C-alpha cells in the first residue's frame, strides 16, 4: 500500500504537468524516448487457452514500452485512488490498510443477499478507443497540452484501442468507467441494490428480486457508455442458487472457494511437474514461453486461494509445498522406462 503523502505527491505532479517535457521528469524518462516509443510501438501478440475452449489474445508490449507503461500506471493509479467510486474493487490501490480492495472484499459486499445478477462485458479493453483515452487525459488533466495528450494516449494504446496486456490498460479502463460507475451507484443506492464492479465483472444483489425494469436500466447505462454485455456470462441467481462472484462462492455469512478449486489446482500442479520432468529428461522442445505462462497461471491461482484462505491455512500450506516440489530442480537423470512416460499431458 502506498502512503497518502506519496499518492498526493504523484497526483500533484500529474496535475501540474503541461508538456511531454514536464511529464517525462515525473515518469523519469527522457522526452525524446517517450516520443520515440509513442511512434514505434512493438508488441508480441499470442493466444492462451481459456476454460471454455476459446482463446484469449494477449498483446504484450516489448520491454522498453512496457517499462514506460508501468511507470505511467503507477502515477495514474495514484490519481484514480483519489476519485475512485466506492463500488470499484478491481485494478486499483487501497489508501487504507483496513480497507483492502480485492476479489474477496468485492464479493463480501454481496454476502447475505438472496437475489443477484452478474454481468460480464464483452471485449472490455478493446471497446475503449484511443480517442476515448485522449478524452480521459484531457478531461482529468486539464493543463496537459494537445501534444502531451496525444503522446500519452499513443503510449497506452495499440491498434487505436486499449491492448490486452499493457500495464496501463486496467487503470485506464477504470477511468473510462467513472461516469458509468457513478450512474449505477446512484441508481442502486436509491433502489436498495448492492452494486460492485471488479474490472469488467458487474455484480448487483438485493434482498428483493431484481425486476425487469432494474435490469433494463442497468443494461441501458452500459450501452450508453459504449459497452456491450457478454450474453453468455449474464447470470441471474434466485435465492436457492449457489452464487458465484469473481470466482468465489457467496453465502449467507461469508465467501469461500468453490469446493473443487483446491483439488483441481493440485491436479494442475501435478501436470506441471510431469511436463517439467519430461522436458528436462527428453528436451521435447516445448517453448519456454508456454512453460512460463503455465507457471504464472498456477501461481496466480495459488495467490488467489491465499487471498481468500490466508497464508496459514492448511490447504495453502499444502498447495505451496506441492508447487515447490513440482518446480524444484531435478538431480536424478537416470534412465526412465518408456512405460513411465506421462502420455496424458
Record the SSE blueprint.
Layout: H1 4-16, H2 20-27, H3 31-39, E1 43-49, E2 55-61, H4 63-83, H5 103-108, E3 115-120, H6 130-140, H7 146-156, H8 169-176, H9 178-191, E4 194-198, E5 201-206, H10 212-224, E6 235-237, E7 243-245, E8 248-250, E9 255-256, H11 261-282, H12 288-309, H13 314-327
Antiparallel strand pairs: 1-2, 3-5, 3-6, 4-5, 7-8, 8-9
Helix pairs in contact: 1-4, 3-7, 4-8, 6-7, 9-10, 11-12, 11-13, 12-13
Strand content: 5-15%
Kindly provide the radius of gyration, computed on alpha-carbon positions and rounded to a whole number of angstroms.
23 Å
Helix- and strand-based class? alpha+beta
From the structure provided, what is the oligomeric state, counting identical versus distinct chains?
single chain
Main sheet? 4 strands, antiparallel
How far is it from the N-terminal to the C-terminal residue, by CA?
40 Å
Low-confidence segments: 333-345
Widest sheet, order of strands = 4-5-3-6
What is the N-to-C order of secondary-structure elements (H for helix, E for strand)? Answer: HHHEEHHEHHHHEEHEEEEHHH
Characterize the overall form: globular
Amino acid at each position: 500500500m502506498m502512503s497518502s503523502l506519496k499518492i498526493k505527491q504523484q497526483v500533484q505532479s500529474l496535475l501540474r504537468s503541461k508538456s511531454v517535457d514536464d511529464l517525462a521528469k515525473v515518469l523519469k524518462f527522457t522526452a525524446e524516448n517517450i516520443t520515440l516509443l509513442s511512434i514505434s510501438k512493438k508488441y508480441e501478440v499470442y493466444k492462451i487457452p481459456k476454460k471454455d475452449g476459446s482463446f484469449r489474445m494477449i498483446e504484450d508490449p516489448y520491454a522498453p514500452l512496457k517499462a514506460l507503461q508501468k511507470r505511467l500506471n503507477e502515477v495514474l493509479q495514484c490519481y484514480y485512488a483519489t476519485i475512485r467510486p466506492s463500488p470499484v474493487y478491481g485494478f486499483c490501490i487501497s489508501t487504507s490498510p483496513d480497507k483492502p480492495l480485492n476479489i474477496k472484499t468485492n464479493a463480501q459486499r454481496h454476502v447475505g443477499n438472496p437475489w443477484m445478477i452478474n454481468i460480464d462485458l464483452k471485449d472490455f479493453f478493446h471497446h475503449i478507443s484511443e480517442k476515448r483515452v485522449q478524452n480521459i487525459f484531457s478531461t482529468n488533466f486539464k493543463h496537459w497540452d494537445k501534444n502531451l495528450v496525444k503522446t500519452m494516449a499513443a503510449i497506452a494504446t495499440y491498434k487505436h484501442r486499449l491492448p490486452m496486456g499493457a500495464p496501463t490498460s486496467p487503470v485506464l479502463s477504470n477511468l473510462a468507467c467513472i461516469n458509468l460507475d457513478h450512474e449505477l451507484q446512484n441508481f442502486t443506492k436509491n433502489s436498495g441494490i448492492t452494486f460492485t464492479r471488479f474490472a469488467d465483472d458487474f455484480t448487483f444483489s438485493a434482498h428483493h428480486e431484481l425486476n425487469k425494469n432494474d435490469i433494463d436500466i442497468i443494461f441501458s447505462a452500459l450501452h450508453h457508455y459504449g459497452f456491450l454485455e457478454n450474453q453468455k456470462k449474464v447470470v441471474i441467481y434466485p435465492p436457492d442458487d449457489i452464487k458465484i462472484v469473481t470466482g468465489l462462492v457467496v453465502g449467507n455469512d461469508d465467501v469461500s472457494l468453490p469446493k473443487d478449486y483446491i483439488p483441481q489446482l493440485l491436479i494442475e500442479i501435478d501436470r506441471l511437474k510431469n511436463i517439467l520432468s519430461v522436458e528436462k529428461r527428453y528436451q521435447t522442445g516445448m517453448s519456454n514461453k508456454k512453460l512460463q505462462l503455465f507457471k504464472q497461471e498456477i501461481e496466480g491461482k495459488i495467490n488467489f486461494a491465499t487471498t481468500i484462505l490466508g497464508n496459514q491455512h492448511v490447504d495453502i500450506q499444502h498447495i505451496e509445498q506441492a508447487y515447490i516440489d513440482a518446480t524444484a530442480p531435478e538431480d536424478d537423470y537416470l534412465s526412465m522406462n518408456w512405460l513411465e512416460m506421462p502420455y496424458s499431458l
